[in-house]
Amino acid sequence: MQTEHHDVTIIGGGVVGTALLYTLAKYTDIKSLMLIEKEKKVAQINSHHTKNAQTLHFGDIETHYTVKKAEKVKKAADLIAGYLENYKKDGYYKEHKIALGAGEEEVKKIEKHFHEFKKLFPKLKLIRNKEIEKIEPLITKGRNPKQPLAAAISEDGFAIDYSTLSSNFVKDAKKIKNKEIKINLNEKVKSIKKLKNCFLIKTNQQTLKSKILITSAGAHSLGFAHLLGLGKEFSLLTVAGSLFTSKKKVLNGKCYTLQNKKLPFSAIHGDPDVNNQNVTRFGPTAKVIPLLERHNYKTFWEFLKVSIISPNGLISIIKIMSDKVFFKYGITNAIYDLPVIGKWLFTKRIKKIIPSIKNSDIKRANGYGGVRPQIINTKTKNLQMGEAKIIGEKCLFNITPSPGASVCLKTAQDDAKIIVSWLGKKYSFDEKRFLKDHKRN
After folding, report:
1. How many angstroms separate the CA atoms of 31 and 20, rounded?
2. pLDDT higher than threshold 70 for residue 265
3. Which of 12, 61, 207, 294 could make a disulfide contact with 217, Cβ separation 3.0–4.6 Å?
4. Residue 227 sits in the same domain as residue 364
């Protein structure tokens, strides 16, 4: 069998990988593109609607963001909003979203957040008890009427099914004529080897060569980087998020609570399910699991290769968990997984948002929740916050914790510039048209 040759091969068909495929197909003059995805459809793991927060993060109600970070995230999220609105795509709806503060101390924090962020987000408003009651009546029902409330609210929220978004990226890429664009599904990469002028990629179905290798495969990306001797100083702490759902609609939009800036995980929030707005999701709980994918026990052995189970890795996790904030968080979330008492305690936590909710009003969302691959730098012995990108010689590995989906087109923009620079002067990226096409009206 003749070995296939491609200019660029992308491993991973989630929202980050498909965004890059779309960007390279439509806005560069690269002729030969290959996307390899091990599932039968694109976006079936962390980009699937049951495995993520279904939110387009702009940074307006994320109280753990600095203004500088929010400015960066907003710029990236606007690209997706522009894509959805300008091209009239499906798989999303608009909703309001609020950051809620209850009690004098939290109200002051919400006020501070609003005044710091209102210049960047002119549509952001500060509302109090009576206005909150009109928008979200169950937030005030059953609450002490003397308790002061404040919320930063935006009407410009997007609830997104990222698996639908990924499918749309693929459809748009395949519309481009005079290019070889191959989407290989149900195909798993077995090995990668760097040759003199290309990469040799062996899968369970074929062997192919590629000038450029891009991996956007979530927690698996680090393992692929390790195959080429890159990112050896990093290991993974795979954190699984779980959800509870209400048995009836209790929120009209997304509601965040104040977040701990030290923790890279979301504080409790509630929002309607993107595919069933009569159900409200609450979460997340978080726990460390020895898997690279939630509920996929075959990934245990792959986890061992990139996990903290090494001398430096174990020292790192001991150092991290000795911090009282992380230790308390870990113990509390472990309790939420226990039968009976876990649900009862989490119901009490939901009362911060919906005071009148009862234990019988919610249930565990079985099968929901994905994995966040949290990077640990075993040299510094610290968590590495935010997105991670490992760059080698004509190869790049995206490991994307939150808000990876929200910044997928910005990631594609950045990666496209790197890729064309690797390919040489004969290739170009029409960044000006890319930005124009995704600019919000």
Report:
1. 14
2. no
3. 12
4. no
pLDDT digits (tens, 9 = 90+) for 421-435: 999 999 999 999 999
The three-class DSSP label of residue 83 is helix
Report d(CA 217, CA 397) in Å as an integer.
Answer: 8
What percent of the chain is predicted at pLDDT more than 70? 98
Same domain? 342 vs 243: yes
Domain end, chosen from 362, 378, 394, is at 378
Closest alpha carbon to 28 in 176, 158, 150, 141: 176
Q: What is the pTM of this model?
A: 0.95
In a domain, 416, yes or no: yes
Q: At what angle do helices 15-27 and 162-174 cross, to 10 degrees?
A: 30
Q: CB atoms < 10 A from the CB of 110, how many?
A: 23
Same domain, 243 and 349: yes
- Report the distance separating Cα 48 and Cα 130, nearest Å: 37
Q: How many domains does the chain have?
A: 2
Cα 404-405-411 angle, rounded to 5 deg? 65
Torsion angles phi and psi, residue 358, rounded to 5: -115, 160
Name the E strands within 87-216. 92-102, 125-128, 149-160, 180-184, 189-194, 199-203, 207-215
Checking DSSP bridges between strand 371-377 and strand 234-246, what pairing results, if any? Answer: antiparallel
Give the C-alpha separation, 365 to 115, whole Å.
37
Last residue of a domain, one of 348, 378, 408: 378
CATH number for position 179: 3.50.50.60
Is residue 246 domain-shared with residue 207, that is, in the same domain? no
Q: Between helices 67-86 and 408-423, what is the axis angle to 10°? A: 90
Mean pLDDT (the chain) is: 92
H/E stretch holding 244: strand 234-246
* DSSP H or E stretch at residue 397: strand 395-399
Kindly compute the dihedral angle of the four CA atoms of residues 42, 46, 48, 50, in this order, to the nearest 10 degrees.
160
